[in-house]
Design brief:
By secondary structure, the chain is α+β, with helices and mostly antiparallel strands. Helix content is 23%, strand content 26%.
Length: 666
C-alpha cells in the first residue's frame, strides 16, 4: 500500500532564538494580530504545558487565561523578540514572541503548583472541558501528565512546532527553563504509546481547549442564587421606575433592547417607508449587477409592522436574540436606510433579508411567535459582501432546516441543479425555483460526518439576454457550496491569476478529490475557493503519475485566507475520486494567490516495494529545487525525486525565473 506523509510539516517554524537582548521591538498591534490568527495553536500549547490538575475544565480556563494575558500591554522590553538567526523570511516575529510569552506564563503556573492569576475567564452556569479523543489520544495525555512542565514544553516544541533540538533549547532557555538539556532528555525518553510522535494526535480535539463540551453546574445551588438575584432585580426595577428611565420603552418589538441614541440617520434606518427598493429590471441595465440590483421579493414586502420590527431588532437586538456574524463583519446598526431584498415565509419562519452596501443581514422569527422544534426563535445574521460582483452574488441562504437549505437566487438566475462534488460524472438533480426566486430544499454539507459526498449547486444565468451568461463564468454555470455563511462560496478551478468556473472534466475531477477538505475553511467568511493543478510528477518504480494541487480560500474581508497543497496519487481501483493527501497548510500569505501565483511543496512517499522517497514539485516559475536538513538534494527544473528515510524532515527552496526564491509551503 502506498503511503505518504508531509515532508515539511513545520507551519510555524521560528529561527533559533539567542538568549540576548537586541532584537527589534515588536508593535503591540503586531503581537495582537499574531495572537488572534494563531489563538487555537497557542491555546493548545498552553493547555499541554500547564499542570494536568484534577479538573480538565479548570485547565481549559487557565489555558485561555494564559494566552490572553500573554499579550503585551505596551511597547517595551517585553515586546522585543531576542535576536534570531538564519534570516528566514517566513518567520512571523509576532507569533514567535507570543509563543515565547505563552510558554513563560504556562511554566510559571507550573512552578506555582496550579495557581493561575485571578480572575480566570468565567462561564456562569456551565462547566467546559475538551472533547474526548480515542484510545491513542488518552494514552498520550496520561503519558504527558507524568512529565515535568519543561519536558512537556520541549515535547510540544519538538513534535507540534517541529523545531530542532537546538532551537528547542534556545526557546526553553528564553522562557526561563534552567535545565534545557534535561527537559529535552526527559521528553525524548518518555514512555509514550506507539504513534504518539504523530502530529495528528497532538492536533486532535483531546488537546484542543477551543473545541469544548458544556455541562451544567450545581442546579440546586443556582436556583437558590437565582431567587436572590430575582429579588435584587425587582428592587432595581422599582428604583428605576421611581427615578424615571430614559428613552421610549422597549420599542415596537419585545426582541429589541431599549433605544440608546436619537439622531437623524438612526431614525431613518428604522423607518420601513425609507427602505431602498430596486426595480424588477434594474439588473438588466446595471453596469455591475450585484446585490444592489436585486429587486425586493416575497409575500411580506408590504408588511410595515414586520419590516419595522426587523429594523428595530437590527439596530438594538435584545438579549434573547441569537446574533451571528461571519469573521470580520460588523454587527452594528445600519448607517442609513438599507435595501430590502426579501420578506416572506420560508419553512415556518418569517425571513427578511437586507443589504446595506457592505453586508447582507438576515432577520428571522417564527411564524406563530413561538420557537421552532429545534429551539430557535428570533435570529439576526450578518455576512460581509462588499465588492460582490455578478459571479459572487448569485444566491443567499434564506433558511436552513432539517439538513437542507433554501436559497434566494439572483434575478438573472435561470437554472439551478443540485450536484455532488464527489460524483462529478453524475448529472445532478434539477432544483425548482418559485416566482420569488426561492429554491426548493436542497441538501447541505455535513462536515461532522464521514465525507461520503459534498452537496453543491450549479447555477446558470443570463444577463440582459446575453448568451454568455453571468460575467466571468463559462458554459455550465457557477459552482456554489454552503460553508456555513449567508452567501455560499464560489468554487473555481485554474491558475490563481485567472480562476474560472468549474466546467471541464479536469476541474470536476480535481474538485471531486478536494471536496472533503472543505470543512477546514467553514465559517471563516469565505468568498471563493480556487483549486489548481500546478504540477504532475512520475512516481518512482513505475507507480504512475501523481498530481500536485494547490487550494486557496479567499475571504470577503481580504485577510484570513487559507492555503493548502495536495498530493494526489493515482486513485486505487474502484475509487476514481479518492481524496488527496494534504502536504501543507498555511494561514494568510500570498502563496497560490493572484499576487503570487507560485508554490513549492514536498511529501514523503512510500513506494510499493517499501522505499521512502522525498518528492517535491513547484509551479511553472520554479527553475530548480534544493532540499536540505534531513534530506539533501538539488535538481534543475521543478520536480525533485530523492531517496529518503521514514520520518525525515526536509527544507525546500526553489529558484524562480528571473531570480528570487520560494520556500516550501508549511
Amino acid at each position: 500500500m502506498e503511503q505518504q506523509q508531509a515532508a515539511t510539516p513545520r507551519p510555524d517554524r521560528t529561527s533559533p532564538v539567542r538568549h540576548a537582548d537586541g532584537g527589534e521591538p515588536i508593535d503591540v498591534e503586531q503581537a495582537e494580530a499574531a495572537l488572534v490568527e494563531h489563538y487555537p495553536r497557542l491555546a493548545r500549547l498552553a493547555y499541554v504545558v500547564l499542570p494536568p490538575g484534577p479538573h480538565r475544565g479548570r485547565r481549559v480556563l487557565a489555558a485561555h487565561a494564559v494566552v490572553q494575558r500573554a499579550l503585551p500591554r505596551r511597547p517595551g522590553p517585553g515586546t522585543a523578540l531576542p535576536a534570531q538567526r538564519g534570516g528566514d523570511p517566513a518567520v512571523d516575529p509576532g507569533y514567535a514572541l507570543m509563543r515565547l510569552r505563552v510558554l513563560r506564563a504556562a511554566l510559571a503556573v507550573g512552578r506555582r503548583r496550579w495557581q493561575p492569576a485571578a480572575p480566570l475567564p468565567q462561564v456562569w452556569g456551565l462547566r467546559l472541558f475538551p472533547r474526548s479523543g480515542g484510545a491513542d489520544e488518552l494514552a498520550l495525555d496520561q503519558a504527558l501528565s507524568t512529565l515535568s512542565a519543561p519536558a512537556r514544553a520541549a515535547f510540544m516544541l519538538r513534535d507540534l512546532e517541529r523545531l530542532s533540538a537546538l532551537e528547542t533549547r534556545r526557546i526553553l532557555e528564553a522562557a526561563g527553563v534552567a535545565d534545557t538539556r534535561g527537559a529535552l532528555a526527559e521528553a525524548e525518553r518518555a514512555a509514550l504509546p506507539a504513534g504518539s510522535r504523530d502530529r495528528a494526535l497532538l492536533e486532535s480535539v483531546e488537546f484542543d481547549p477551543c473545541a469544548l463540551q458544556a455541562r451544567p453546574t450545581d442546579l440546586i445551588r443556582r436556583r437558590q442564587h437565582g431567587r436572590a438575584a430575582l429579588a435584587a432585580g425587582a428592587a432595581v426595577a422599582v428604583c428605576g421606575a421611581l427615578l424615571g428611565l430614559p428613552g421610549g420603552g422597549w420599542g415596537p418589538s419585545r426582541a429589541a433592547a431599549p433605544p440608546y441614541a436619537r439622531n437623524t440617520a438612526a431614525e431613518a434606518a428604522l423607518d420601513p417607508g425609507r427602505l431602498a427598493v430596486s426595480s424588477p429590471t434594474a439588473w438588466k441595465t446595471a453596469a455591475r449587477p450585484d446585490f444592489s440590483t436585486w429587486p425586493a421579493r416575497g409575500d411580506r414586502t408590504g408588511d410595515k409592522a414586520l419590516l419595522r420590527r426587523a429594523l428595530t431588532v437590527w439596530a438594538r437586538p435584545g438579549p434573547q436574540v441569537s446574533v451571528t456574524a461571519t469573521p470580520g463583519t460588523s454587527a452594528g446598526p445600519a448607517a442609513g436606510p438599507p435595501q430590502l431584498l426579501f420578506a416572506g415565509v420560508v419553512d415556518r419562519v418569517v425571513v427578511v433579508l437586507f443589504h446595506d452596501g457592505l453586508r447582507v443581514v438576515r432577520y428571522a422569527e417564527p411564524t406563530d411567535g413561538q420557537p421552532r422544534d429545534d429551539g430557535t426563535g428570533t435570529a439576526l445574521d450578518f455576512a460581509r459582501t462588499d465588492g460582490a460582483a455578478a459571479d459572487s452574488s448569485t444566491a443567499l441562504v434564506a433558511d436552513r432546516a432539517s439538513g437542507n437549505a433554501r436559497y434566494l437566487t439572483a434575478p438573472w438566475v435561470t437554472s439551478v441543479r443540485a450536484v455532488d462534488l464527489v460524483r462529478p460524472d453524475a448529472a445532478g438533480q434539477r432544483v425548482t425555483v418559485d416566482a420569488d426566486g426561492l429554491t426548493s430544499p436542497v441538501p447541505i454539507p455535513r462536515p461532522k460526518e464521514r465525507c461520503g459526498g459534498w452537496p453543491a449547486l450549479r447555477v446558470g444565468g443570463r444577463l440582459d439576454g446575453q448568451p454568455g451568461g453571468v460575467p466571468g463564468s463559462r458554459p455550465g454555470g457557477e459552482l456554489l457550496t454552503d460553508l456555513g455563511e449567508l452567501a455560499p462560496a464560489r468554487l473555481t478551478y485554474g491558475p490563481p491569476d485567472a480562476p474560472a468556473s468549474v466546467s471541464g472534466p479536469e476541474g470536476r475531477t480535481a474538485w471531486a478529490r478536494t471536496a472533503c477538505q472543505l470543512p477546514a475553511v467553514r465559517s471563516q467568511g469565505v468568498r471563493a475557493v480556487n483549486t489548481w493543478r500546478f504540477a504532475q510528477q512520475a512516481l518512482p518504480g513505475g507507480g504512475g503519475t501523481a498530481a500536485w494541487l494547490c487550494t486557496r480560500a479567499e475571504t470577503w474581508r481580504g485577510a484570513g485566507s487559507r492555503t493548502m497543497t495536495q498530493f494526489q496519487v493515482p486513485p486505487p481501483s474502484g475509487q476514481p475520486y479518492a481524496t488527496g493527501a494534504v502536504t501543507a497548510r498555511a494561514d494568510g500569505g500570498t502563496a497560490c494567490g493572484p499576487r503570487a501565483p507560485r508554490v513549492l511543496s514536498g511529501v514523503l512517499w512510500k513506494s510499493r516495494i517499501g522505499r521512502w522517497w522525498l518528492l517535491a514539485a513547484g509551479s511553472d516559475q520554479v527553475t530548480s529545487i534544493t532540499a536540505t536538513d534531513g534530506v539533501r538534494g538539488r535538481v534543475p527544473g521543478r520536480l525533485l525525486t530523492v531517496l529518503a528515510t521514514a520520518g525525515a524532515h526536509a527544507e525546500l527552496t526553489g529558484t524562480l525565473t528571473g531570480g528570487g526564491t520560494v520556500h516550501g509551503l508549511r
